[in-house]
Amino acid sequence: DTAVSQTPKYLVTQMGNDKSIKCEQNLGHDTMYWYKQDSKKFLKIMFSYNNKELIINETVPNRFSPKSPDKAHLNLHINSLELGDSAVYFCASSPKGQGTDGYTFGSGTRLTVV
Amino acid sequence: AQSVSQHNHHVILSEAASLELGCNYSYGGTVNLFWYVQYPGQHLQLLLKYFSGDPLVKGIKGFEAEFIKSKFSFNLRKPSVQWSDTAEYFCAALFYNQGGKLIFGQGTELSVKP
Q1: What is the reported pLDDT for B33?
Q2: Pairs of residues, one from chain A and one from chain B, whose beta carbons lie less than 8 Å apart
Q3: Which of B43, B99, B107 lies at the smallest CB-CB distance from A56?
Q4: Is residue A90 within 8 angstroms of chain B, CB to CB?
Q5: Do B104 and A48 lie within an 8 Å CB cutoff?
Q6: What is the pLDDT of residues B101-113, one digit of tens each?
Q7: In this structure, are residues B4 and B93 in contact, taking their beta carbons and an 8 Å threshold?
Q8: Reduced to 3 DSSP states, what percent helix, strand and coil does chain A have, rounded to the nearest 5?
């Protein structure tokens, strides 16, 4: 059983399109996160939800909108995709709101905008 | 804002050589520290973590790290690397006053030559 699963694994789309990435965790964790890994492998947090409530919202364009229907799911919707959005997006979860036990990461979604 | 920095961008070693990857974090009060590994094309996996107590932490795959509070450092070590250790290594810190946000260093690419 995959602990944190993301779909799709690969996503190639044209500029201007709208796309969604889904994430699900079966660990019973309360907190979920979205990270963006750029071409230089740098990881930067985008959002965090604790039991469906948004708790971290970094400086991310409004085109990115997270949605958490329940504490096991955190989806990421991106409007009007731009070339600069090309990256690997990682979902993660942690058992407590403070993430003190570290995060469990999904396998990533490689988004390519052409 | 608190930050994490890794000294080496790319390290190249021969098999059986010893490894030490540097990691420093900015002062921010209580901090939890982590090392993650990302094998090519894969997600991040937790190698080890430090919360408190013994500053020498042992992790999986023969890795260990030493927390030196006076130097704000958490260097990763392995006495003898293998070709299979080729990967990207990320140091990360969780500052308690940052609301559970895990902050990553820039990553160090390790290449082990057989």
Answers
A1: 94
A2: 65
A3: B99
A4: yes
A5: no
A6: 789 999 999 999 9
A7: yes
A8: 5, 55, 40
Residues 6+ apart with CB under 8 A from B70: none
Chain-chain contact of B101 with A99 (C-beta, under 8 angstroms): yes
Nearest alpha carbon to residue A104 among B46, B98, B50, B105: B46
Name residues whose C-beta falls within 8 Å of residue A108's C-beta, 6 or more positions apart in sequence. A6, A9, A37, A88, A89, A90, B43
Residue A97 has pLDDT above 60, yes or no: no
Inter-chain touch A56–B103, beta carbons under 8 Å: no
8 Å CB contact between B29 and B95: yes
Cβ contact (<8 Å) for A55 and B99?
A: yes
Q: Any idea which residue has 């796309």 for tokens?
A: A19
pLDDT, tens digit (0-9, with 9 covering 90-100), for A13-60? 999 999 999 999 999 998 999 999 999 889 999 999 888 888 888 878
B69: exposed, middle or buried (Cβ count in 10 Å: 0-12, 13-18, 19+): exposed
Inter-chain touch B102–A103, beta carbons under 8 Å: yes
